[in-house]
Amino acid sequence: MYPPTAVPGLVPGPSKLSRSPGSFTLDDTTAIRATPGAGPAAALLRTLLAPATGLPLPLAPDGRIVLVLDPGLTGLGAEGYGLTVSGEAVLLRAAGAAGLRHGVQTIRQLLPVAALGAGPVRGVRWSVPGVEITDVPRYAWRGAMLDVARHFQPVSFLRRFTDLLALHKLNVLHLHLTDDQGWRMPVAAYPRLTEVGGMPHGGAYGREELRELVAYAADRGVTVVPEIEMPGHARAALAAYPHLGNFPERRLDVWKSWGVCDTVLGVTDDVLDFCRAVLDEVMDLFPSPYVHVGGDECPTTEWHRSPAALRRVADEGLDGPDALHGWFMERIGDFLTGRGRQPLGWTETGRDLPGSFTVLAWRDEDHGLAAAGRGQYVIMAPYRSTYLDYPQSAHPDEPPGQSGDAVDLPAVYATDPAPAHWGAPAAARVLGTQAQLWTEYVATAAHAEYLAFPRLCALADTAWSGGHDWPGFRARLHHHRTRLDALGVPSRPSAILRPERTTR
Ligand code: ACM
């Protein structure tokens, strides 16, 4: 591509990049010219560069950093951008706001690494090398899931994590808000969900802080996709409201073990009303077109024994209690589509979720193919290459994680959201890919960051560039690691053993 010394390695790698003569230096006199609609991108550039550079970067009609929003640039798609840097000017153009935001992140990466620091840096010349870049993502869905149910993380960390995603042009933060071990989503109609379910391992969010997080992420081009688990992985809800279970007289605690829990939601009208009421509040807070409703790891043993569940099987003419899973998900899916949202769920087989669902294929790759074959949209999340709760290597210093073989950097990089043998029709159903950070063994923000990076860099590169250039990625990552250092992302296991540092 380009000699690594000529342009600092960018992650993800751009579709087309060439070096051109000269470099552009930003100083106290540099101003931004923004065409109509490009103002938010100018504000983002100013906000991101302010802490380290202190540059004022005001708007001015003759500004030499020119941000152009031009819907006529259809070749760049919804998220692509063109960037031209010469000695005289920086010209960033895109057809949409998302493209401008990605271009801003590229400018940020082209600056000296010190520009990423959290505090003022003196004596650095803030120069951007001359380049000509045209950059369009391969996949529209480039995500990271964070499990805040198993171990709660404060919203300050979610903002920092969002910033780290945006730096890598990842555009989805999927929040796993509820599980057997915790319920972190405030629901006004059911206050005990967080009063009871927020207790172990942390706390719960406030409505306003979630609303602010959604806005903060949107300013950075990141959509926050909420997940409320059902009908399995719902023990925290059952601890708060026992009547939602299959044996309403039974009292349960919020689960203290990890794994798959037998206690699941009942299938009565009351339970469906509860789920709809919760999802109404979720949709009020999260404008995301997609709403995730779980669907995974739902043992049906209780439905085989519950009189109410067996009555439901008979009334609906189902084949047996196992069919209640699809029946339940179909009703929830219909509710979401009726509200204009897209239901999203974890598929276990590629055939288990109703056709209205977009599916995350987390087990075998072939499940993605099976779902695509049924006409469903698919996001690839195979655990052997996108689950970041597995250790990064077999080194004995790695902190304890999910038991199993390491998911190392080459494995993540090799994630292929639409393998060639799938053929074009199935590939056209693939929206993209995302990484999963489950937190059974992850109690602190520093530990979460340690597990996320640099593996998220590899996922971002694959999702953005469709990457098949491991040596090229490694060369770019070599420089990019200095950016992660400047951002304070822990790179060694020992770092996570230190007392928790505070986040903004
Ligand atoms: C999952 O790992 N149960 C989606």
Question: What keywords describe this structure?
Answer:
8-stranded parallel barrel; 2 domains; beta-N-acetylhexosaminidase; EC 3.2.1.52; HEX_bac_N; disordered N terminus; Chitobiase, domain 2; TIM Barrel; binds acetamide; 504 residues; alpha/beta; elongated; hydrolase
Structure description:
The protein has about 500 residues and is of the alpha/beta class. It has 17 helices and 16 strands. About 35% of the residues lie in helices and about 20% in strands. The protein has an eight-stranded parallel beta barrel with strand order 7-8-11-12-13-14-15-16, surrounded by six helices. It has a six-stranded mixed β-sheet with strand order 1-6-4-5-3-2, covered by helices on one side. α3 (about 155-165) links the parallel β7 (about 140-145) and β8 (about 170-175). The longest helix has 17 residues, at about 270-285. The chain is elongated. About 50% of the residues are buried. Acetamide binds near residues 296, 297, 346 and 362. This is beta-N-acetylhexosaminidase.
SSE blueprint and pairings:
Layout: E1 16-26, E2 32-34, H1 39-53, E3 65-69, E4 81-85, E5 90-94, H2 97-110, E6 126-135, E7 141-147, H3 155-167, E8 172-176, E9 178-179, E10 182-183, H4 192-197, H5 207-219, E11 223-230, H6 235-240, H7 269-285, E12 290-294, H8 301-305, H9 307-316, H10 324-338, E13 342-347, E14 358-361, H11 365-373, E15 378-380, H12 383-386, H13 409-413, H14 424-427, E16 430-437, H15 445-452, H16 455-465, H17 470-486
Parallel strand pairs: 2-3, 3-5, 7-8, 7-16, 8-11, 11-12, 12-13, 13-14, 14-15, 15-16
Antiparallel strand pairs: 1-6, 4-5, 4-6, 9-10
Helix pairs in contact: 1-2, 3-5, 7-10
The structure holds acetamide.
Acetamide (ACM) is lined by residues 296-297, 346, 362.
